[in-house]
Automatic annotation (TrEMBL):
GO terms for molecular function: iron ion binding; iron-sulfur cluster binding. InterPro entries: NIF_FeS_clus_asmbl_NifU-like (IPR017787), NIF_FeS_clus_asmbl_NifU_N (IPR002871). SUPFAM superfamilies: SufE/NifU. This is Fe-S cluster assembly scaffold protein NifU. The gene is nifU. It comes from the Bacteria. CDD domains: IscU_like. Transmembrane segments: none annotated. Residues 1-121 form the NIF system FeS cluster assembly NifU N-terminal domain. It holds the Pfam family NifU_N. One of its GO terms (biological process) is iron-sulfur cluster assembly. PANTHER family: IRON-SULFUR CLUSTER ASSEMBLY ENZYME NIFU HOMOLOG.
Length: 122
C-alpha cells in the first residue's frame, strides 16, 4: 500500500519537535479524520531556516509532515507557499488514493505557519 519512501519517513520522521521561539506556528486539523498537525518555523531574511513538526495522526500524515519539512527548509517563504499537497505526495513516490487527504494536512499546516509568520512581521 505505501511506497518505501513513505515507510522511511513514517519510521524515521525528520525534524520532529517544537521550536520555542518560533517566528510562525501553524496548526490544522483534518476534518475528514480528526488528525492534527502543528508546524513551527524559524525565518531569517524571508528564508525558512528551521522547521519542526508535531503530528497526531496516521502514518501518511506523519510521512507527509516529515517530507514537507525537508522540501520547505532553505526556501523563501514565497517559494514554500507554493508547495502543494500534490508535490508532497509525488515526493513520497505517491500515496494511496484514500490517503491523499493526509497530504493536504501537511501543505495546509505549512501555509498556516507562514501566514502566522507574516502576521507577526507586518
Ligand atoms: Fe486513525 Fe487511520 S485515522 S487509524
Ligand atoms: Fe488523517 Fe491521514 S488519516 S491525516
Amino acid at each position: 500500500m505505501y511506497t518505501e519512501k513513505v515507510m522511511d519517513h513514517f519510521q524515521n520522521p525528520r525534524n520532529v519537535g517544537e521550536i520555542e521561539d518560533a517566528d510562525g506556528v501553524g496548526e490544522v486539523g483534518n476534518v475528514k479524520c480528526g488528525d492534527i498537525m502543528r508546524i513551527y518555523l524559524k525565518v531569517e531574511d524571508n528564508v525558512i531556516k528551521d522547521i519542526k513538526f508535531r503530528t497526531f495522526g496516521c502514518g501518511a500524515a506523519i510521512a507527509t509532515s516529515s517530507v514537507i519539512t525537508e522540501m520547505a527548509v532553505d526556501k523563501t517563504i514565497d517559494e514554500a507557499l507554493e508547495l502543494t499537497n500534490k508535490q508532497v505526495a509525488e515526493e513520497l513516490g505517491g500515496l494511496p488514493p484514500v490517503k491523499m487527504h493526509c497530504s493536504n494536512l501537511a501543505a495546509d499546516a505549512l501555509k498556516t505557519a507562514i501566514e502566522d509568520y507574516k502576521k507577526n512581521n507586518k
